[in-house]
Amino acid sequence: LYNARRREGGKTVDRPVYAASDKIFFADANKQLHYEGSVDIRQGGERIRAGVADIYLGAGNDLKQAVLQNDVVITQPSRRVTGSWAQYTMEDETVVLRGSPATVADAERGSTEGGQITVS
């Protein structure tokens, strides 16, 4: 369990993140959580599934960055994103997604696919 800041209604709020996988490792030296096998991460109405996830935390156990690999699927209430690799950076709230192809299906903005897609 860790916290992730989100922008909601023009405000920045902390929301808890829940994660499960077959194996979980924590490296205190660099505050890295490593999830392996059937990774399932949830925060509110969002869900991330992948084969491997590396989560990097800040000093207050808040999310700084996430790197996801192997059959990545990110679902949000109106968007579904898939690929073989993804990197989320909290600072700019951006996901860089790679795949053959990487896909984004967004109910409001339409769909796209490509070798690399950046979603904000």
Tell me about this structure.
- The chain has 120 residues and is mainly β.
- Helices cover 0% and strands 78% of the residues.
- The chain is built from no helices and nine strands.
- Strands 1, 2, 3, 4, 5, 6, 7, 8 and 9 form a nine-stranded antiparallel β-sheet that branches.
- The radius of gyration is 14 Å and the shape is globular.
Query: What level of helicity do the residues show?
Result: under 10%
End-to-end Cα distance: 24 Å
How many H/I helical runs? 0
Rg from Cα: 14 Å
- Beta-strand segment tally: 9
Mean pLDDT: 88
Low-confidence stretches: none
Our estimate of the beta-strand percent is over 45%
Basic shape: globular
Order of helices and strands: EEEEEEEEE
Secondary-structure-derived class: mainly beta
Biggest sheet record: 9 strands, antiparallel
Keywords:
120 residues; mainly beta; 9-stranded antiparallel sheet; globular
Brief summary:
The chain is built from no helices and nine strands. The chain is mostly beta strands.
Chain-wise SSE layout:
Layout: E1 2-8, E2 11-20, E3 23-27, E4 32-43, E5 46-57, E6 63-76, E7 79-89, E8 94-106, E9 110-119
Antiparallel strand pairs: 1-2, 2-4, 3-4, 4-5, 5-6, 6-7, 7-8, 8-9
